[in-house]
Design goal:
The chain has 129 residues and is mainly beta. 7% of the residues lie in helices and 21% in strands. Strand 1 and strand 2 form a beta hairpin.
């Protein structure tokens, strides 16, 4: 069982330096505590998720190049998140707008830096699924 994720939820990338706030835009009819519930489609950079500050993953080509230029000293670069597929949902049977809802247990992989994006604060505390 998990909590439904709504607009305003806080997310964090395993290689990021700052959290990001999630904006649910895939549907607007189902609400949790008066806020739109997020679905697995809410993953677009700069629309649903803002960058996570500075990226420290050597799988990110910009970080690898900056680190090589600094003679091997890890040199983080600005996050340029590229989702590698939709969110993985722990309860895909709960639907909103025809798509599986997000719960606080869902994860999203970054295809550029190989980071794992997790939901740290779901944005509401009453709706369990």
């Amino acid at each position: 069982m998990g909590l439904l994720v709504v607009t305003g939820a806080q997310c964090m990338c395993s290689f990021g330096s700052a959290p990001s706030s999630l904006q649910a835009t895939s549907q607007t009819t189902c609400l949790g505590e008066g806020k739109p519930i997020a679905t697995i489609k809410d993953m677009q950079p700069y629309i649903n998720l803002q960058p996570f500050g500075m990226c420290s993953s050597l799988a990110n080509p910009a970080v690898a190049a900056a680190t090589a230029a600094a003679l091997g000293v890890l040199t983080p670069q600005p996050c340029t998140m590229v989702p590698a597929g939709p969110w993985t949902s722990s309860n895909p049977k709960v639907m909103a707008g025809g798509c599986p809802c997000l719960t606080n247990e869902a994860t999203l992989m970054c295809g550029l830096g190989a980071g794992t994006i997790q939901i740290t604060v779901p944005g509401q505390t009453k709706v369990l699924v």
